[in-house]
Amino acid sequence: MAAARRTAKGVWDRFSASDPGLLRLMAGLRTVGAILLALAVLTLLGTSVNHLVAGAMTAMVATFAIQEKEVRGQAITLLLGVPVALAAISLGALLNSRVIAGDVFFVLLIFGAVYSRRFGDRGTALGLIGFQVYFVSLFVSAEVSALPGLFLTLAVAFASSAIVRFAVVPETPERTLRRLREAFRARLAQLVAHQIELLDAGADDVDGVLDDLRRSTARLHEAALMIQGRLEEGTRDAAAAALLQRRVADAEIAAERLGVLLLNARSAERVDTLTLHLPNASTPMPPRAKIAEDAGTALRRDLNALHLLVVRLVPDDRGTALPYVRNRLLGYREEKGLPKGSPALQDCFRAVGEAARAILGLRLAVDGAQDEEYDTPEAARSREEFAAEEISIAGEAAGADDEDERTGLRRPTTRAAVQVAVGSALAIVGGEFLSTQRWYWAVLTCWVVFLNTASTGEIVVKGYRRLVGTVLGVVAGVALAGAVGNHTWIAFGLVLLCVFGMFFTAPLSYAMMSFFVTAMLGLLYTLLNTYSLDVLVLRIEETALGAACGIIAAVLVLPVRTSHRTDEELGTVLARLRDVVSAAVAQLSGGPPVDLVDLARDLDTALDDLRSSTKPLTHPIAPLRARRQTARYVVALLETCAYHARSLAATAELVPSSKSVAADARLALAGRRITHNIDLIAAHVREEETDGTIESGASIAAMLDSGRHQVLRTGSVAFRVLRHLQRLDEGIMGLARPLGVPLAAREERAAGAAKGA
């Protein structure tokens, strides 16, 4: 029985790790529940199949359109959506027989729906409800005589959505944040488990383990960013939000650092380039490919202990065993009980201690003080450091968000509204030639390819994915329609499965979402007795037409080139990277404390935006292979730089309160060179005139030689800081070549010599 419970918990942990906070699961259940309730009520009222379809589609729209985090805001938007939906269905019925007037109004409605995104989540939701309900009127061929029944159908649909949202599957910011924290715990445990696998992986298995390690590290980072987005609404005050944000960041950075050091310890070819740069340092002997048996056994034991601390990161775990394990691992931070081994291996034990400290901080931030009676001096000092940080955080004021200063057609929402209006007009004209009854499918495709896109390349990729998903969905729709026949409730059951699949896969794959949408439409046409193979083939043609019209509008009307957007995002990433590095180095040099966690998270957000903007360049259908490779290389370098910048920030955060981390004024010299090079690259990306070149020369470690010719102790805080600065310096210099930034003459000669060799 206990084994079954452990297995079930392991399966659940993996599932929650794949769906952070169960957001996709809850969205799917909420939408399916709203549709089910609406269908049940409408069936009891004896409505027709047409009204059942209209009610199901309206309940779906009323549920997924509202994305506000606060419950009060959701209720207000849902209430405002009722008159918007009634107006849309009325105008759809009135204009159904007036072709020209109906088409003109549809284009204006599309423009307004997209333009309303500038007013935030509420404007986006109301615009989406207006557009989709008007589309429902076209889908069910609404007439004026049927309006009373349709009004009742819409009222039932909105009421069903409200009941499911607020009573059956309630969603509050606090509950979402709690699930996200659980997802973070599960992903952290998954990452530590893969790190344990790395110790024992043979030569044939190591590549697969490394892929798992990279994937789990990326998922942990994703969960951390999602938690950040929910903190303000899900915590009691700004200080509590900032505290939890810092603890999550500490845990993420500690886990990342542990993985890097484990990989270094395994590598048979490893030579520490930082140690080579230190004055009078001898070349270290590379460790053996197989970690020493005794040290490996101890490290495996401690990683399993760390995994246990993560798995038991819940408030109902009490007793002396866990505090004992935690205290032993915390001792490694202060060299207490450090097992014998190579410097690289001892780095791993110290990193285990840092990770144990981060887990302790996360537990204190979530559940408050506990188990203090079992503290060793090392654990007590960690608690004192956390308490000092908490006092510092409580006194910090939250900064205001920057507002978009662009106006007129330069504003993204205005530009997108004009583009989609033009594209929809083309889709209406072309769609009428294909079918006078199903032309609106082309308009719908044109509409959706513009949602959540910001460049021409993104629109092209999204149109391609929708077309692929539609073609596959038509095949599935033919099979399902043939299997269902005239069984109405079986068809509705399959429709619900398609709806759930649509919402569950939407954040993962747009092609899969389009597949479920098209399969659902085949079933809906069966319910309306309008199904035929020709209709589904027409669906493919209208989809291709709508995607083409959207791409044409994006290319010809106020175009935003993909390269222009990626340059903007790249400039933002470089600016955020400079902010983090300069602030961290200033604090490590003895400057005043600043909120480095917020700066680091701004960098992470900007880097995620850059990844999204480069997807059209790195997509397999992108024709320019060299450009694709350059984009991947630049993003990979920036991800490495961001990791070292986050680690610097985490170390600098310890300066004001820690007894083991002291400021060093010499670090300011290294920071100036790095920030100068970042400024030069950023200016080049912005196409500004610059006369300077990338500064290179002596390594960071050699620059900071105080003349005493001492070698820094591996694993010390100073050594760690120098290592991160050295990697940052190398990463920034590596960015110069693919971005075409001029290098100093000696650097060019060195690069030429290396290439010739």
UniProtKB/TrEMBL annotation:
- Keyword check for Zinc-finger, yes or no: no
The UniProt keywords, alphabetically, are: Cell membrane, Membrane, Transmembrane, Transmembrane helix
* Boundaries of every Integral membrane bound transporter domain copy: 427-552
Q: Could you list the residue ranges that cross the membrane?
A: 75-93, 99-116, 123-140, 146-168, 416-434, 440-460, 467-483, 489-506, 513-531, 543-560
Xref: Pfam families = FUSC_2
Keyword Cell membrane annotated:
yes
Localization per record: Cell membrane
Its chief place of residence is: membrane
| InterPro entries (alphabetical) | Memb_transporter_dom (IPR049453)
Identify one Gene Ontology CC term for this UniProt entry.
plasma membrane
Q: Kindly give the membrane topology term recorded for this protein.
A: Multi-pass membrane protein
Which family, according to UniProt?
Answer: Belongs to the YccS/YhfK family.
Q: What PANTHER family has UniProt attached to this entry?
A: MULTIDRUG RESISTANCE PROTEIN MDTO (PTHR30509:SF9), P-HYDROXYBENZOIC ACID EFFLUX PUMP SUBUNIT-RELATED (PTHR30509)
Name this protein carries in UniProt: FUSC family protein
Instruction: Record the organism.
Output: Streptomyces kanamyceticus
List the taxonomic lineage: Bacteria, Bacillati, Actinomycetota, Actinomycetes, Kitasatosporales
